Fold this protein.
Amino acid sequence: NLPTEGKVTWKAPSNIALVKYWGKKTNQIPANPSVSFTLDACATTTTIFFTRKKDTSQFSFDLFLEGKSKEDFKPKIQVFFERIERYIPFLKSYHFKIETSNSFPHSSGIASSASGMAALALCLVDMEKVMNPEMGKDFFNRKASFLARLGSGSACRSIEGDLIQWGEHKPIADSSNLYGIKYPFKVNPVFKNFHDTILLVHKGQKQVSSSVGHNLMHNHPYAERRFGQAHENMENLKTIFSEGNLEGFIKVVESEALTLHAMMMTSMPYFILMKPDTLQIINKIWDYRKDTKIPICFTLDAGANVHVLYPESAKEKAIQFIQDELVAHCENGHYICDRIGNGARKL
Ligand code: PMV
């Protein structure tokens, strides 16, 4: 019962890791568990127009980003299709026109791979659901997460909200290396409406792609200890989340961010991904927190931009501080106000 043609659209958010995924085994299996806030404003919207074709010997697709043909992204999609073909058997039976757009500006230094791969995976599972209508919501989300992981590891945390765990962490029977799950433990309401203001310190292309970065964890002198630490931090967060312990949260989250960068500084070859402005922002956040006791903290991706995290109760003061002190360190004064979100949705 394959339809001859049709279209499907999904909007998927980005996410920001609190315990970082850095290092992987084959088949996009993470070397350690991770947990992230799903974001809201930073998102990718993807429409797939599909048309049945006769020749089923190869993949066929066109790709448009913000209306413009994107030849340079095609190899990534080709690899993704090759990886997922055995889970999406109709993939070679269609020509796909993939139209995608991001809510955040071009080359803002914000990676679109998590939201982009999540949106694409959701479109494909949705097509499968047309052919297999009895597919339940849990299976749908898990399959979308499973496929998204094969596109970009962290994308598997971009299907649902608002706090997502990916990776086996004993003794959580339900946790999996294959897909993200909703955080399975009690979470105090203080962590349910967090804000993330993303300071765009450096908007250029990332100096080190995440796949190169993950590979640098092979034969890394501190890898095993780092993976152990991630497990310990997952364990620590359990109590921190349930008690609403903001002080504990800040310690884990900032330490995770700096550890991620420390791993890159101590790999071979080695990299410094922070910029002078990144360090100045971090120092200003520390000074401000010390002076005001306001629970504002930072985390980092594998780049120079800073994610400033704070609870709803600190919103007014935090935004004032960010505007007065931190925005001056952003490239062209650019920053994005985001917050914890509820996951992807069909449009
Ligand atoms: O999903 P990837 O392969 O782009 O890796 C993402 C890695 C970090 O963003 C640095 C950390 C994380 O857990 O998201």
